[in-house]
Structure formats: structure tokens, C-alpha cells
Amino acid sequence: MQLRADQLEQHLARGLRPVYTIHGDEPLLAQEAGDALRAAARAAGFAERQVFVVSGAHFDWSGLLGAAQAMSLFADKQLIEIRIPSGKPGKDGSEALQRYAAEVCARMPDEVLTLVQLPRLDGTQIKSAWFAALDAAGISLRVEPIARPQLPAWLAQRLARQGQRVQTGEDGQRTLAYFADRVEGNLLAAHQELQKLALLYPAGELGFEQIESAVLDVARYELGQLGEAVWTGQVARALRMLDGLRAEGEAAVLLHWSLADDIRALVRARAALDDGKPMPLALKDARAWGAKERLFERALPQLSAPTLARLLAAASVCDGIVKGLKHPDWPHEPWAALRRLLLMALQAQLPTPRKAADTAPRVLALRA
Q1: What is Dmax (Cα atoms) for the chain?
Q2: Which fold has domain 148-214?
Q3: Does residue 286 contact residue 265 with C-beta atoms inside 8 Å?
Q4: Looking at the chain, which residues constitute the CATH 3.40.50.300 domain(s)?
Q5: CB neighbour list of residue 156: distance below 8 Å, 6 or more residues apart
Q6: pLDDT digit string (tens) for 302-321?
Q7: Segment 10-46, tens digit of pLDDT
Q8: CA distance linking residue 50 with residue 45, whole number of Å
């Protein structure tokens, strides 16, 4: 049975299952889920705790099975934690985990509670026999990062837990949006900034100036997030991400590759659409799946073949600049060239103005 992280508290209030498998790449939420489970285990009388870390191919799986089946003289219930940092138990581990689920989790549900901690798993790992056995024996909890659109609500919820809140209405939404911009992609730091607010100010309402003066800019970005901002037309967010990735030491070549790869895929999809193929088949031709498929589905109606051809030519020029070449009509500095390419991609998605007089303000706004 699968649960979301926000469902765990209500689930634990109704009782415990024999095994919990927590997997995902958001450290704060994974840690909080594990802490909540340990607290519930202690309250239910699981007084003894053993931790096994699978650190390599030579891990002794028989020791894990033996420890789970051996009852302590001082406690009749025990919590077993199995940590697999790589997410890959191997052939022996796969067999051992399936046996563990059958012999320990199924036959000793009242004596042994098991917590399995894993990193983010891919589709193959989730469909594996060992994961299926653990999931069938208990609960699997997938810990996902908080996306930018959901981050203001998450921050408001965390503020409420410590007796604080922002103003109501648009002023409060602006405050939460500012807070989210400063901590996006870095929940551990967001948690620390929330704790700082609890120390600096008493319970009650917080104004924009209080949060602005207290919250540091600890946002962290990934290349995939930059593409999301570009192909959803978020100008300010895309520029902020570009500056953030540069400050974090990301290579200009990698940023260019990511943007150029998206442009090439959009060119293929546009050609397929112009040939009469429906959108799903066009996106398949472009090898766009998952989140990228949704982004392109939104962007493609705004992008004509000539527009994409100009973007592709610009990406080619920018490729030379980030690799040390110069172009008379482009900035010589790689990050300035990337900024120009990014703005061109954003501008290409704007609706065509009905009046010629509207064109100049639109271009100037993007270049600002």
C-alpha cells in the first residue's frame, strides 16, 4: 500500500503496519517521516532498536534475518531499520528482502516493526520483486520534493505549526511568494529559516518586512527546473534561476546543452505537427516524456516552425560562445550569451501583438 508523506500522520494514528518503506530524494521530509514512525513505534512498545546499513555487496543478509527473529531478554518488541543508501540491494539482497517480508513481516507483525530507508528509486527498482514484497507486506511512502507552486502553502502550514501566520489576502500571498523564492529547492534550509522566524518573532502575524529582513536567499536550482520556468513563460523565475545556477558554480556548457536539447526536441515536434500528426505522436517523435511532455504540450502552440528555426540558429551561436568562440552580434561572455538565448526562448512564446506599436514594449520588457 502506498501513501503520501502528508498522509502518514493520520495513518499512524490508526495503528502500525509490519513494514514501512520510505524512498525519495527530499532529505527533510524523509527524516521527518522516519522520526514520526520511530515516535509511533516507541509509543506502541517497540523499545529495542537495531539499525543495519547495507554499504556494499558483502553485507551479511543472514545476520539481518537472524537479528529480526531473535527476541531480546529485555524487550518483547523491536524496531529494525534497514538503510540501503544505493537503493540497490543486489541479487542476494533481493532474495533476502523477499524472504524477510515473508518470514518476519508476515509472521511476526506484533513483535517486529521494520523501517526500510531508500533514496529515490527509478521505475525498474519500483517494479522489482523485492520492492513489491515490501510494499505488499506493509506501507511504502514516496517522498517527493515540494514543487514551486505548492511551496507557499507548505510554508504557511509550517508557520501555523509554530503559531505564526502572514497577512490575509494579496499581501499575505506576496509575502509567501517572496519567502518561496528565497528557499525554493532547499527544504532543509527552508526549515532552518522557519525555525529562525520562530526565534526572532513571537506567535502571531508576520509582515513582509519581517520576513524580508530575516530570511536568507538559500534557494537551490536544478537544470530541469530552469527548463520548466522557460517553457512555462516565467520570465522572472527563469532569470533568477539562471543567476542562481551561475552562483552555485554550474557549468555554462551544461546549461546550454539543456536549453539547446529542448529546442531541438521542439523543432522535431513542430515538424511532426506540421505534417499532420496529433500532439501525442508529435511529442513521441520528439522523445518528450513525463514532465517534459506536459511542458512542450503547452509551449508548442505558441512556437511556429520559423520561430523555432531562429531559436535553433541562436542556440548554435551560443554553443560556440560558451566554448570560447566569439560572434560579432552576440555578447562574448558565456553567461550573458545564455541570458540572451533564454530571453529569446521566453519572448518566442509571447502572443503576437495585434498592433505593431505593441512590439517594442514587449521586447524591451524581456531585455530589462
Answers
A1: 85
A2: Helicase, Ruva Protein; domain 3 (1.10.8)
A3: yes
A4: 2-143
A5: 165, 166, 176
A6: 888 898 999 999 999 999 99
A7: 899 888 898 999 999 888 999 999 999 999 999 998 8
A8: 15
Buried b (16+ CB within 10 A) or exposed e, 268-288: bbbebbeeeeeeeebbebbeb
Task: Provide the grid cell at 55.
Answer: 554499504
Place of cell 511532455: 293
Which CATH number is 2-143 given? 3.40.50.300
Which residues partner with 19 through β-bridges? 114
138 by DSSP, 3-state: which?
coil
Class at the top of the CATH hierarchy for domain 223-367: mainly alpha
2 pairs with which residues across the strands?
A: 140
- How crowded is the C-beta side of 224, counted as CA atoms within 13 Å? 7
Residue 292's SS3 state is helix
Integer Cα distance of 18 and 41 in angstroms: 11
pTM over 0.70: no
Residues 6+ apart with CB under 8 A from 310: 344, 348
